[in-house]
Prior knowledge:
- Chain A is of the alpha+beta class.
- Chain A has a domain at about 5-60: Ubiquitin-like (UB roll).
- Chain A has helices at about 35-45, 70-75, and strands at about 10-15, 20-30, 50-55.
- In chain A, strand 1 (about 10-15) and strand 2 (about 20-30) form a beta hairpin.
- With about 325 residues, chain B is mainly α.
- Chain B is built from twelve helices and two strands.
- In chain B, strands 1-2 form a two-stranded antiparallel ribbon.
- In chain B, helix 3 packs antiparallel against helix 6, helix 5 (about 120-140) runs parallel beside helix 7 (about 180-200) and helix 5 packs antiparallel against helix 9 (about 225-240).
- Chain B is globular, with a radius of gyration of 22 Å.
- The chains are: A alpha+beta (about 100), B mainly alpha (about 325).
Amino acid sequence: MSDKKQWPIWEVFIRSKNGLEHRHAGSLHASDAEMALENARDVYTRRQEGVSIWVVESKHIHATNPEEAGELFEPAADKVYRHPTFYVLPDELKHI
Amino acid sequence: MTQKEINLEEQFQARIDRDESIEAKDWMPEKYRKTHIRQISQHAHSEIVGMLPEGNWITRAPSLRRKVALLAKVQDEAGHGLYLYSAAETLGITRDELTEQLHSGKAKYSSIFNYPALTWADMGAIGWLVDGAAIMNQVMLTRTSYGPYARAMVRICKEESFHQRQGYEIMLTLCKGTALQKELAQDALNRFWWPSLMMFGPKDDESPNTEQSVKWKIKRKTNDELRQQFVDQTVPQAEFLGLTVPDPALKWNEERGHYDFGDIDWDEFWQVVKGHGPCNKERIDARVKAWEEGEWVRDAAVTHAEKKDSRTEQKVA
């Protein structure tokens, strides 16, 4: 195999229509941002899936470590008082 | 294995049993990772090599309608190959390594693409039978345990249903046409029927990977279950076309509620898997040629990107 430089990986985010957020669609290889956008258009929007595309080189994404998911996200599990249904109000009360 | 590894494996299996998705950065047994790299890359290579028999017919499509449809289908296959390569890459293998494995013969692809597409009717038979068989497998894989693979499959399944319909429409048109056209359709069915049944892989009792794959929920149905499902679904479609499935043993079994069908020629299957099918060499040669002849383009793109970066850096400085 050649030891030549491979095209970097980019993550692709697509806004399916105005009013909605960009969502992760997948990834692809491209030599630069311009090519990444063009390839994303061909690979991820062949059936009108998008009106706007973001691309970012995968190496720039920082992610939480799955092994720390417990300490990061479990503390929210027992805080039911952050949800409206925690507060008990009489049924006849309206618009609240 | 150390005690720690045993514990990790038990926890992993428990997650699978709870139907949790496994994501790229999660701990996974080495064998799970390797099995996925093998299976996903094989799947990706099948999409890419699968473009070849059909690509050959784009310029000879009988009408503009057929031509745009076939072109769109082949484009989809390129896209599907790319989704799958990306999913494989999340497991720590590079795209160049994957390409290299295809070209060296280390990685396999679906044997069906080692059969030639001789007539226009083959475009119909491939869409109807080959894509039909592939979809059956892929629908199951939308619920596979590895998240990136399952997500690629959801996207692929959404796009692929038109492939089978366009194939069947070609068959239907031929079968309503002249006697010669109907003969072409029958001939295509004759040649693609058995290779399509082989697409589901070896029989369950001869498939070394099935048990582990089912346990890890990579597969949720066995090869034989999927094959039976395919036969049951496809035979009435052949009858609708007025064509004869080339299997004298094919018969509805009231008791089982399924069709019984004849024995598959497994010698032929293994011959083709081992590289001795009608088009194995031609297919790989075509891939290698495309890769080698595209090298200067890939290199030029890298050089262009580097130059552009250095110019931007100079301006900033």
